Amino acid sequence: MAAVMGHTLVAFHAHPDDEALTTGGTLAKAAAEGHRVVLVTATDGAVGLASSQYAGTLADTRRAELHESARLLGVARVEMLGYADSGLGPVRPADPPGQVCFNRTAVLEVAERLAEHLREESAQVLLSYDRNGGYGHPDHVQVHRVGALAASLAGTPRLLEVSVDPRVARVMAPRGFHVERVPDATHAVDVRPWIEVKRAAIRAHRSQLTSGGWLPRNNDILTRLPRRVLEMAIGWERYVDPSWPAGTPVADDVFAGL
């Protein structure tokens, strides 16, 4: 059912496909309820894992995949900031010609760019990541830093940071990365009614379903699960509002109270 009064939600992510994996249900739900949904992606995802068939074209491929995912989720506007993917390996790649790896950018510089979009959209909600960056990817950690500052600069009423269970984060974290304890979720969104949209959006990132080897990629396995199992795995999306008063009941809607 359409919302009586629509709000604007801006989701800030590091790479193409992050929007579908971590917030896809929330975005689809907001759009279906009549809210304006805007997606800002920091990097081109050019060093993401993919088979050799995408060699030399991965950035362009992932841009097209991002737009298809956004279409499926009901996103009204997509902006790519154009930074280079910093990768997840033990050694950070060199900056490509004409680009800077996102984790090397000046936080204030990027925050000002993001804040400009927040002001332009009169956004009420910004989705970002917790201080672990979810699971420790350096670009995700940078999203946390940038998002927090941008929300402050723009005066955005609500900042919600994607919250990943620390036990899961420790398993996924790069070697040597310390996973910090984060506050319990303040918002838990039931996205099971939109699980098939979320599945389709993840699968729209086809380059991230292929490994080039005989082992299937995690995203491919995940999105082939029966619906009931998929709902158990990714049917809830959780966030932390750093300003949420202690003891306040967990909200089921990112716009609650606005």
Fold and architecture overview:
With 258 residues, this protein is of the alpha/beta class. The chain has a single domain (8-240), classed as Rossmann fold (3-Layer(aba) Sandwich), CATH 3.40.50.10320. Helices cover 38% and strands 16% of the residues. The chain is built from 9 helices and 7 strands. It has helices at 18-32, 58-73, 107-121, 133-136, 138-154, 166-172, 195-204, 218-222, 227-234; strands at residues 8-13, 36-43, 77-83, 125-129, 158-162, 187-190, 236-240. Strands 3-2-1-4-5-7-6 form a 7-stranded mixed beta sheet, sandwiched between helices. Strand 2 (36-43), helix 2 (58-73) and strand 3 (77-83) form a beta-alpha-beta unit. Helix 1 crosses helix 7 and helix 2 (58-73) runs antiparallel to helix 7 (195-204). The two termini are 18 Å apart.
How would you concisely characterize the structure shown here?
With 258 residues, the protein is of the alpha/beta class. The protein has 9 helices and 7 strands; from the N terminus they run E-H-E-H-E-H-E-H-H-E-H-E-H-H-H-E. Helix content is 38%, strand content 16%.
